[in-house]
Amino acid sequence: MSEILNKPEVAKIYIDARGPRFAASITTVVLAIALVTQSAWVLALQGLVFLIGAVRGPQFTPYGMIFKSLIKPRLKKEAPTEDVRPPKFAQAVGFLFALVGLIGAIAGSSAVFTVAVGFALAAAFLNAAFNFCLGCEMYLLGLRLATK
Question: pLDDT tens, 98-145?
């Protein structure tokens, strides 16, 4: 991964790698609530969190702020870091799924809402439970394909 992300012309910002996994845990719960209740409002709030993460970075989301202020100070190990670009891309993908789900809700299509929220929920669960960021892997695959 580092050989793909190490480009001298790009300023690098690193974040605590444990933060996105913590955020994915909260996201999993929020998206499960949205799915079970079929609530467009809950999805809209999560979509806003995704948008902040995609534009500013996951460290600036409410979940990132909770991690930074409440969780990180209690962790004793040295923090592993990661480049912020793959998690930002993953947040953008989450935002797109939330947007599709909201469009489905507005259009009266519960199937579109359910599928979009289900996909976002599955990706968040993968990150929370197995530390596998699907959006991050998509970002890296895109970089590999673009550099060939």
Answer: 999 999 999 999 999 999 999 999 999 999 999 999 999 999 999 999
φ, ψ of residue 14 in degrees (nearest 5): -115, 145
User: CA-to-CA distance for 134 and 140, rounded, in angstroms?
Assistant: 10
**Tokens matching residue 77:** 């190990």
Give the residue from 129, 109, 139 showing the smallest Cα distance to 27.
129
Indicate yes or no: pTM above 0.70. yes
Q: 100 is written with which tokens?
A: 């599709």
Nearest CA-CA partner of 67 in 123, 24, 31: 24
Q: Tell the residue number behind the tokens 């923090």, with chain if given.
A: 79
Contact status, residue 80 vs residue 13, Cβ threshold 8 Å: no
Per the listing, tokens 């409440």 go with: 70
Q: What is the DSSP string of 12-77?
A: --EEETHHHHHHHHHHHHHHHHHHHHT-HHHHHHHHHHHHHHHHT-GGGSHHHHHIIIIIGGG--S
Number of helices and strands (H, E) in the chain?
7, 2
